[in-house]
Every structure is written in C-alpha cells, then in structure tokens.
Amino acid sequence: MVMKAAVLGHPVSQSLSPRIFNEWFDAVGFPGEYEAIDTPPDAFEETVRRLMAEGYAGVNVTLPHKNVAASLADFRNKAVERCGAANLLLFRSGKIIADNTDGAGFARCLVRRDKPGASLPSKAVVLGAGGAASPVINQLTPQRVHIANRTKAKAEALAENFGPSCSAHDWDEIPELLKGADLLVNTTSLGMKGQPTLDIDLAPMSPDALVVDIVYAPLQTELLKQARKLGLGTSNGLTMLVYQAVPSFLAYTGLRAPSPEKTLRALEAEK
Ligand code: ATR
C-alpha cells in the first residue's frame, strides 16, 4: 500500500516539499506519494478531515494555515502549544496529532558550515514577531533573546509568551542591540523578492557572529551578502526549509531522511 501525504498551503504551487519528500521516498525505496494541495483558508478544515478519511498518513501545513492547524488538533506537543502554530498534522487512529518542526529546521541553521563545532551563540537578536518568529524563539530560549519588531507590541506579546529570557525592542534599537551580538536571525519578510531589503549595519556584531536569514527567495539576500563581506558566518532559509522536513519524514515513514545535506546543496546550486 502506498503511504500518502501532502502539503497544504495557499498559494502552494511554489512549494519544494513534494520534490524533497518524493526524492527521499525514492532514495530509501519507501512506497510513498507526496503532493501539494492548494487549500484556501475556508477549505482548510474540510480538506484535512477529508484526507484523514481517505487514509493519508498526515499533512504538512504552510502559510496561512499554521495557527488553525494547531487549534484543529486533538493532541499538541509542547512546541505547538508554545508557538500556537503547527506545521505537521499526523493522522493516527482517527485523531489529529500536531507537531511543529520549524524549530528543528532552524536548529540546523545554527550548525556553522564555516566553523563546525563552534559554540552556540550567547547573545541573540531576532528581527520580526510574525508567524516565523515563534519557532525560532522557542528553539533559542531559555537563552537570552532580544526581539526587535516594527510593531513593538507584537514583540512584547512574544517576549511575554516565551518568558523572562526574552526582551522586546523597537526597530530603531537594532544598532544598539547588535553591539557584541553573536547571532542575528531575520524572520521578517524584508529581503524577500518584491519586498524592501533589510537595511541594517552588521559591523557592530561580534566578529564570530552568525547571521541567519530565513528568507530563501532570493537565496543570497543583501543581509547575507553583507555578513559574508564582514567575514561573519551565514545560514540561509533553504537550510530551515529542508531540515524542517526531516522530522516529518521520520514521522511518516519511521525512517531517517536519507540525505538532507545533499538535497540542500542541490537546491542551493539551482538558486
Ligand atoms: P508571518 O506571520 O508570515 O511571519 P507577518 O505576521 O506579516 O507574517 O510578519 C511579517 C514580519 O515582517 C512582521 O514582524 C512584520 O512587522 P510588523 O509586525 O510590524 O508588521 C515584519 N515586516 C514586514 N514589513 C516590514 C517593514 N517594511 N519593516 C519592518 N518590518 C516589517
């Protein structure tokens, strides 16, 4: 019997997930089929329940459904509870089990290619307080995290949710926050194709700093270009995308993803 799974989003045609999962199914010889299903918000719940009834193993969930996915589930793990968002719904015995693997994807961004074995950062600055920020902050805490957002109230709500190791800041505090910081994560939409660039000066950061941009279209954002010029470490958004699929693949198949690093390098080479 073929195991079926899908990614639900709106829009979703651009999703790399079918390619990633189907490549991995082929590589390990697992009888799986993975598709992208465009799902407008008003059809989300009905689509989830229909796929469960049709015997799908589960679905991955992307924008704009991650919050609703969390609330729809019968069971939620801690990451889902803390982020209020899920990107994986597993169907088991007629129940929906929610997980959030974005934090695991982000964790891989902290593994430095330029300095394997480098110690984890101690002063982190996260830009943005939208849906992409929560799993990043959840992964970093209880480490010290400074959250800067254009709308400070949203940063404050996140800082309150994630506890005393987080603080909220105005956007214009960024230059001050970056002094001596050894990790910067952009979770805003700035730098994405069609959006303004993220225009900040990275010079005050620690010389050992790592700069993570979760934007992956384009792959080489101005932020990452500047970081490289300064000799800082960088991680791109494709890393998070590929590695958030690893725990999903394990949940669907019981098998380890065969070659995430190879998949990542191949996707990077195409961008
Ligand atoms: P998502 O939930 O998909 O992450 P979002 O909630 O719209 O999307 O969040 C986008 C993030 O990018 C937010 O932190 C947003 O800041 P606001 O909370 O002030 O809206 C940030 N962002 C978008 N455009 C921005 C801009 N021009 N300058 C600074 N931040 C911006």
Main sheet characteristics: 6 strands, mixed
When the domains are counted, the total is: 2
Question: Secondary-structure element order, as H and E?
Answer: EHEHEHEHEEHEHEHEHEEHEHH
Count of DSSP helices?
11
Please state the second-level CATH architecture of the largest domain: 3-Layer(aba) Sandwich
CATH superfamily of the largest domain: NAD(P)-binding Rossmann-like Domain
CATH topology of the largest domain: Rossmann fold
Bound molecules: 2'-monophosphoadenosine-5'-diphosphate
Computed structural class: alpha/beta
Order of strands, widest sheet: 2-1-3-5-6-4
The helicity comes to: 25-40%
Radius of gyration based on Cα positions: 19 Å
**Beta-strand level of the residues, as a percent range?**
15-25%
Shape: globular
Mean pLDDT: 96
Number of strands: 12
End-to-end span in angstroms?
A: 35 Å
Give a structural overview:
By secondary structure, the chain is an alpha/beta fold. It folds into two domains: 3-100 and 244-270, Rossmann fold; 104-235, 3-Layer(aba) Sandwich (Rossmann fold), CATH 3.40.50.720. Helix content is 38%, strand content 20%. It has eleven helices and twelve strands. The strands form two sheets. The chain has a six-stranded mixed beta sheet, sandwiched between helices. A hairpin with a 2-residue loop joins strand 5 (88-92) and strand 6 (95-99). Helix 5 (102-109) crosses helix 6. The longest helix is centred in the C-terminal third of the chain and has 17 residues, at 237-253. The radius of gyration is 19 Å and the shape is globular. 2'-monophosphoadenosine-5'-diphosphate binds next to loops.
